[in-house]
Amino acid sequence: MFGIIFSGVGLKCVGFVTKHQARDDKNPKNREALMKAIENDLLNDENVLAVFYGGSIGSENTDLYSDIDLRIVVKEEVFEEYRSNKKQRARKWGNVLFHEDFPWTNYTIAHYDSFIKVDVFYYKLKDIQPSVWLKNIKIVYDPEGLMAEIHEKSQGLLYELSPIEFEIWRTKFFAYVHEAYRRVMREEMYYALQCVDYLRLSMASAWYMEAGIQPNTFGDWAKIEGKRSNLKDWQLSLLESWSCSRDPFEIMNVIKNMVPEFKRVHKNLCAKLGIHENPEWVDEIFNMVF
Asked: Which residues of 36-47 are buried (b: 16+ CB within 10 A; e: fewer)?
């Protein structure tokens, strides 16, 4: 169904109408109820050292579709038990439709029948160190002040681009350009489109690096678009313009259109890090495809 809508907390999606709007409008209330169930359970567990929220709850910028990024710090001697029972524990908080995870990891993503999902991570205290990722968190349980101290130390940390991070970024960009060409020539269009998507995300990461903002973990598009984006309007417009179908000419033209902005950002980041730009080398890499 197509049309123009929108929703309760200022979200806007032109051209799409959902039959689930009444349910979605209840998401904030259902999220609060789920958080209350989580806290009622965990805050009475003597093996839990701290409980806090990250993500949009920690940053206090939730919207209708925000999930719950839950972090649980437990005593070291019970960590493996709690990690192994991560799915069972999540079922105590509500009706889980399905879990999204790998059995050997320290996390599970529980999808509830209220359409709220909870990203649950278990930690030992020694695994949590001051970090830029811990600057915006909401601590709900911390009787010994352990997380409060880490949170306070995190406030003084700033993201700083490293030469290694920069080198990984630019060489992966080069690699995706070359790989997209190979996949187009093999008529593997979905593979080529995946490369295009990675190139778009690489450019968004570069804009974050240029602005001194910690980029998302690669593969994570959260908050890059939309009202909560840290990107400027012209960057969002440019990102939107790099759209294409399965047509091979479109794919290669979109990649070619990214190159001027890549070169601009690459030059600025080289200057910031004191690295030789070597534009001839960059051109040699791109000219193998274009």
From this structure: eebbeebeeeee
In CATH terms, the superfamily for domain 21-154 is: Beta Polymerase, domain 2 (3.30.460.10)
State the Cα–Cα distance between residues 228 and 180, nearest whole angstrom: 30
pLDDT 10s digits, 197-238: 999 999 999 999 999 999 999 999 999 999 889 999 999 999
pLDDT digits (tens, 9 = 90+) for 78-97: 999 999 999 999 999 999 99
- 121 membership: H or E segment, kind and range: strand 117-124
Every domain of the chain and the residues it spans? 21-154, 163-287
Backbone φ/ψ region at 187: left (φ over 0), alpha (ψ -120 to 50), beta: left
189 exposure class (CB count in 10 Å sphere: 0-12, 13-18, 19+) = middle
The answer to whether 144 and 49 have CB atoms below 8 angstroms apart is yes
Q: Which of 185, 226, 179 is nearest to 199 (CA)?
A: 179
| Longest Cα separation, the chain | 63
Kindly report the CATH class assigned to 163-287: mainly alpha
HEC string of 166-233? Answer: HHHHHHHHHHHHHHHHHHHHCCCHHHHHHHHHHHHHHHHHHHHHHHCCCCCCCCCCCCCCCCCCCCCH
Whole-structure pTM value: 0.85
By CB atoms closer than 10 A (0-12, 13-18, 19+), residue 116 is buried
DSSP 249: H
The DSSP letter of residue 126 is: G
Q: Quickly list DSSP for 79-103.
A: HHHHHHTHHHHHHTSS-EEEEES-T
Residue 40 CA to residue 56 CA, distance in Å, equals 21
Q: Determine the residue type at 80.
A: E
